[in-house]
Design goal:
The complex is a heterodimer. By secondary structure, chain A is mostly helical. Chain A is built from five helices and no strands. Helix content of chain A is 66%, strand content 0%. Classes of the chains: A mainly alpha, B mainly alpha.
């Protein structure tokens, strides 16, 4: 069976470790290394980077030998929308308010799923927002403004 | 005897009204998420870490521990009733538990699983009380070289024994150590890997990493799979097992307890492996092995006791040495650190209320599980009908609020989103995230102990091999690695973990 390099899981893992290891050694070598007797701030990270690099090379070679394919389904939609939901929440909670941030978060998250019913999501938003405001703002007294006009 | 004094003191702490309440919340939440597939104890504990900030350390730990063992319990409830393991540790329980339910014996199966867990919990509480103090006493004498070697052993064995590719697990441990380094170096005051981002000079927040990797990445992963959940409920009548059931179960429960306790102390072996081993053992010693798979009560009693024993004994290395042996224990250590308590052998002497209170609370919590949950079985099963599409936006909301409440910083949320993506990529590449968390927790400690060890020895790295205790740890580490790369064992291990 032919497995392309881009779907060879160990090859890709190896590549990732090599990149991280090399990056850590490169950046870490900017910090004073010191000696074994007096370890500088660069000593430990550079050593770790070297170890990851070696593990990466091994994994990459294993990938080329074993040729095992990535398994499982992907949801590109979830992979994009869920982080976006977080980012929007982070922005809105700082610049809007707790309520709009939460509404946006729940709405975008729900849209990441494969089944989406507008009515259901609307109900969930209302219930979740009310419950969170009650729990976090009133009960736990977190000091966040609820709406843009209340800040 | 000291042991009983200590335990009585512990019960005094655990039975205070506040701690009882948190214990109840813990086991209740634990059972809840144990019942619901698609959300495990890891994600829940990660999500609730920020909530515990405002709570006293003892109460916080009691609640988090309750979530952990409560989840094992909830997982077996659904395994028996609907043939759906809520947690990995209850996969084995499905085999005979569900068969029992189909024969109209769901009640006895549930009861025996609760009783088995309770007995295991009781024995393990004694274990911890018995072995904890001497272990901590030895550990108090450790110097930097011993600590470094011990941590090395913990990390290596945890990743080598865990599920999946060994080298990738080790690479993830080292990556975790590296992530632990991010931030200001305590010795030189230099900020490392901060890339000019001021928020990163304080280091990566533990909560952000845990939530991103275990909650967000898990949801992304779950949404990729198509949901298929059939609730086929058998009515629970006649809860109590017969005398014959009890007689047949007591042996498996005791064997399962000891097996689980032993596995629990080893790093890396999760409750799933403990319950699986117990099942195999019971099948071997049974008079009539042909009954297994057809509703043998031993096949429920043994594994259920084993996974509970394993879960509880995992606390021994965490509490006495400050070494986490699983991802959940790493989260617990993180929770301790956040509370301003440095984990290690001194916890027992400096915070006896925390140590003994937590241990006693486990017994109390196990008792609550038996008393409260058997009557509530109906409620748990009806919860299974909550579809995931409703559940996951709620989880996202709690995660986001939780992360934001730690530092009131939007940067933490962005970082969690990024780590969520990374966590998903790691899952797909089959690079296990649990070892990374272990490394992350131990990273700063390991660097500090390495620095000190080398300072004492004037830069001579052989110090790790010339001090006897340290040498012992090094030899043990080497032996486990060699054992694991032996072809025969490797093959067996692959069979088990699959």
């Amino acid at each position: 069976m032919k497995v392309g390099l881009l779907e060879n899981k160990d090859f890709l893992s190896g590549l990732m470790f090599i990149a991280i290891g090399a990056g850590a050694m490169f950046i870490g070598s900017d910090y004073p290394i010191g000696s074994a007797l007096r370890m500088g701030p660069g000593y430990f990270p550079v050593a770790l980077g070297g170890i990851i690099f070696v593990f990466g090379v091994y994994t990459l070679v294993q990938g080329l030998i074993k040729k095992e394919k990535l398994v499982g389904a992907w949801s590109v939609r979830a992979l994009i929308l869920l982080p976006v939901a977080f980012v929007v929440f982070g922005f809105l909670v700082d610049h809007g308010g707790f309520v709009p941030a939460l509404v946006a978060l729940v709405f975008i998250s729900a849209a990441a799923g494969s089944e989406f019913s507008f009515k259901e999501v609307l109900i969930e938003i209302v219930v979740l927002t009310a419950a969170s405001v009650g729990l976090f703002i009133y009960a736990l007294e977190l000091p966040y403004p609820l709406f843009p006009w209340s800040r | 005897m000291d042991l009983f004094h200590n335990l009585i003191f512990g019960f005094g702490v655990a039975l205070s009204l506040q701690n009882l309440w948190f214990c109840f919340i813990g086991v209740f939440l634990g059972t809840l998420i144990g019942v619901l597939p698609g959300i495990g104890p890891l994600a829940t504990i990660a999500m609730l870490l920020p909530v515990t900030f405002n709570v006293a350390p003892v109460a916080a730990m009691i609640m988090l521990a309750g979530i952990y063992y409560g989840a094992q319990y909830g997982g077996s409830t659904t395994a028996i009733l609907v043939n759906l393991p809520g947690e990995v540790s209850s996969v084995v329980t499905c085999i005979d538990g569900y068969q029992m339910a189909r024969q109209g014996r769901a009640g006895p199966a549930l009861a025996i699983s609760a009783i088995g867990s309770f007995i295991a919990g009781t024995i393990c509480t004694m274990f911890i009380a018995l072995f904890g103090p001497p272990l901590a006493e030895i550990a108090l004498k450790f110097g930097a070289p011993e600590y470094f070697s011990l941590m090395l052993m913990g990390l290596v064995t945890a990743s080598v024994l865990a599920h999946g590719d060994m080298v990738k697990s080790l690479a993830m441990v080292v990556l975790g150590l590296l992530l632990g380094v991010v931030g200001t170096d305590v010795n030189s005051g230099m900020s490392r890997f901060a890339f000019g981002v001021s928020e990163l000079t304080d280091g990566i927040s533990f909560v952000v990493l845990a939530v991103g990797m275990f909650a967000v990445a898990e949801i992304v992963d779950n949404l990729g799979e198509t949901e298929e959940r059939q609730v086929f409920t058998s009515k629970v009548t006649n809860l109590w097992p017969t005398l014959k059931d009890m007689r047949m179960s007591i042996g498996p429960i005791l064997r399962g307890t000891f097996l689980g306790a032993f596995m629990g102390i080893l790093p890396g072996t999760g409750p799933a492996i403990a319950s699986f081993s117990s099942y195999m053992l019971e099948k071997k010693v049974a008079k009539d092995p042909s009954q297994f798979g057809k509703g043998a009560i031993q096949g429920v009693a043994g594994p259920e006791a084993a996974n509970n024993a394993d879960a509880q004994c995992k606390f021994i290395p965490m509490l006495t040495l400050g070494i986490p042996s699983s991802a959940v224990m790493a989260l617990m250590l993180g929770a301790l650190t956040i509370q301003g308590i440095a984990p290690g052998p001194q916890v027992m002497t400096e915070k006896p209320d925390l140590f003994w209170g937590l241990i006693a609370s486990m017994w109390v919590g196990n008792f609550m599980l038996v008393v409260l949950n058997l009557p509530l079985v109906g409620l748990w099963v009806s919860l299974l009908k909550v579809p995931y599409r409703i559940l996951f936006p709620a989880i996202m909301a709690f995660c986001a609020i939780g992360i934001y409440s730690v530092n009131n910083s939007d940067f933490d949320i962005y970082l969690a989103a990024f780590i969520g993506v990374l966590g998903f990529v790691w899952r797909k590449l089959e690079c296990p995230p649990a070892p990374l968390l272990l490394g992350f927790v131990l990273g700063p400690l390991m660097e500090e102990n390495l620095r000190r060890a080398l300072l004492i020895s004037r830069g001579d790295a052989t110090v790790f091999f010339t001090r006897p205790i340290s040498l012992g740890f090094m030899i043990a580490t080497a032996m486990i690695v060699i054992l694991m790369i032996t072809p025969a064992i490797r093959k067996k291990r692959e069979q088990i973990t699959d």
